[in-house]
Amino acid sequence: MRSWLTNIQWCPGCWDTLIIMALKNAFKELEIPSHQRVVVSGVGCSGKASQYVDGYAAETLHGRALPFATGVKMAKPDSTVVIMWGDGDGYGIGMGHFIHSCRRNLDMVYLVFNNENYALTTGQASPTTPIGAKTKTTPEWNTVEPFNPLELAKNAGCQFVRTADSIKFQELKEIIKEAIQHKGFSLVDIHQACPSFKRW
Ligand SMILES: Cc1ncc(C[n+]2csc(CCOP(=O)(O)OP(=O)(O)O)c2C)c(N)n1
Ligand code: SF4
Ligand SMILES: [Mg+2]
């Protein structure tokens, strides 16, 4: 069988692959069989992630992975449902779904690949782009304050809220394991380097 690493769709130096590897290892160490795993992604560089994890997978619409995943979890409550998507997906177009998923508290894992930009569409500002950053849509500098997803999630009722860094691989894997074991909706906001467009 060919390794998944021979079919990489990301730029050299992209950290998306580290996040995928951390999830694959977390599934393995928790001994979750592939028929119980469901990985749902949105659209973006991060959206490709679901193609690389053994188990059921769906690459859905931009911003709509959460409602899709909610349906899966309700139909198949014993499955381990993981959402993998970007900051544009999760904190921009999919923001309403994010807040209501925190309120509903279904047992799902919400992994946000936070590279602080819309990377697949070549580097526009996102809700987490810092002040001063130069992007395609902020050619001089970004003047809009980024929002804090962690505080929003807590205020909306999410009881498991963590940040992680994809370069700290072991730590990321352990946090993902904790998130899977947490009974309820869990947010892991993952700092992800995007060498092609995030230059701040
Ligand atoms: C409804 C809809 N609007 C816009 C797009 C175009 N689009 C594709 S990916 C993307 C942004 C992706 O950014 P993010 O979610 O942060 O993922 P990343 O590529 O950074 O991993 C946009 C706007 C789309 N596919 N569908
Ligand atoms: S554009 Fe950025 S996020 Fe997308 S594959 Fe390239 S480095 Fe990764
Ligand atoms: Mg992004």
Describe this protein's structure:
The structure is a single chain. The chain has 200 residues and is an alpha/beta fold. It has helices at residues 16-29, 65-75, 87-93, 95-104, 149-155, 169-181, and strands spanning 37-41, 56-59, 80-86, 108-114, 117-118, 124-125, 160-165, 186-191. The radius of gyration is 16 Å and the shape is globular. Helix 1 (16-29) crosses helix 6 (169-181). The structure holds thiamine diphosphate (TPP), iron/sulfur cluster (SF4) and magnesium ion (MG).
Q: Main sheet: which strands, in order across?
A: 2-1-3-4-8-7
The CATH topology: Rossmann fold
CATH superfamily heading: Thiamin diphosphate (ThDP)-binding fold, Pyr/PP domains
Query: In what range is the share of β-strand residues?
Result: 15-25%
